[in-house]
Hints:
With 302 residues, the protein is mainly α. Helix 8 links the parallel strand 3 (263-272) and strand 4 (291-300). The protein contains 8 helices and 4 strands, in the order ααβαααααββαβ.
Amino acid sequence: MSIDTYQHEHHFNQHKPKAGEKRTWFVVVLTALTMAGEIIAGLVFGSMALLADGLHMASHATALTISAFAYIYARKHAHDPRFSFGTGKIGSLAGYSSAVLLALFALVMVIESAERFLNPVEIAFNEAILVAFLGLVVNVVSIFILDVKEHSHSHGEDHSHHHDHNLRAAYLHVLADALTSVLAIIALFAGKLYGLNWMDPMMGIVGAVMVTRWSIGLLRETGKVLLDTQAPEELQQRVRDLLEMDGESKITDLHIWSIGSNQYAAAIEVVGSSIGNTGQLEVLLEQVSEIVHSTISVKSLK
């Protein structure tokens, strides 16, 4: 058997187009068009809630563009040897950048809303409500384009590792847009029907608080990947159960970290008196499909 038999690439199928790539590009175009309409309408009709919604769409259009280009970059550079474990983390880096943008635009919303509290302006309610409804329709369509089912169970901490952070960031951006659209509609109707014009900037602040919370959650998720934190305990335990199944072997050093969407690398040291060779342990580890690259060190007590 030649040395070439043991050589292998480290792209881990990251050169293949991801399911969310085309959907993300479609949403980018849709969001950019609606963004322009809402910002113009907010300025013309004097609605802070509507302007805030448009500004959110501006941030989301930027973030969605980052997500879309991240897919392309990861694909084009998947075979680049400068990336030790492929380009899988580019999606998490894009997601982290998107989360930062979410937080920044939430801050802009708060500042603009405070300004409107101090200096109220006249609002053209009918026109503003119409545009806000249009924005909400676009957001709902975008959510379904990005596949809401893929994220329906992603809110729990234990399940976040199953998801494409790049796609999750795009999803959170359009979800945030949908929220601000709903808040804008509520505020505009409150002002039109009951004269509660202060609801308009108040809803801008409420939306900013909610978006900030989502931003923090996404920062935590992507930060864990970028900082090579340990894989979830459930995955670690599965590895321990497999490699210690003889009852005598013991894992003395275990490192499992994310290198892509539901893809992990592992460095493991196993000690035992009747332990098998490295090849046997690698065969056992193949049962853990999430681990796509492993280095196993075997030490015998004999």
